[in-house]
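Hi support team,

I submitted a single chain yesterday and got back a structure, but I'm not sure I'm reading the token output correctly. Could someone confirm the output below corresponds to the sequence I sent? I've pasted both exactly as they appear in my results page.

Thanks,
R.
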Amino acid sequence: MADAGAGGHHCARPRGLPLTGGSLAKYAAKDLLGAGLAGTVAVVSSIASTLLMIHFTRRLGENTAADADARAPGVLALAWIVMALASLVIPWLLYLDFPIEALPKALAPAALWDALWPVLVGAVLAFVLDRLRGLPRVPAGDVGIALGGLKGLTLSGGAALEHTDTFLRRWPVACVVMLAVTLLFVWAFL
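Hi R., thanks for writing in. Yes, this is the structure output for that exact sequence:
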């Protein structure tokens, strides 16, 4: 088992549902992310992804056909099956061609547990959030309600950008180009 990173925390192990392409990609990136902020954000991302997928499947279940005997056209069902299999098989084929570590290490029980626990946390959170009736219900697609408090900040930022644009338009185009070229040279030398 690879060490868990600084301090022995398993938080730095960003994972997805074990044996899926997402899990394999996160397994390959775990050493790059490390045990710091990036690793922790990746773990939180795995938990949030689980919440999102559970929400998606619930909404999908609410939009079933009115006719209980209705079936998807064969071509559509086949395309879905091929896509699902490709999303599982292709990452593993790529991993076998460019192994990050030995395959048994990626399939070890400890590695599978590191992949599974954020998914379990996300599933438990989804269950708890579903049971809490006190949460506000935001209408589908209406992010504006949640971000309503940012209106003043957005208007102020827009006005500041407009003033900056007006100021920069006073300069002749040649001056702006010379300034940009000078800044590029300074950046290149640094």
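A quick pointer for reading it: Residues 1-14 have pLDDT under 50 and may be disordered. Let us know if anything else looks off.

Best,
Support desk
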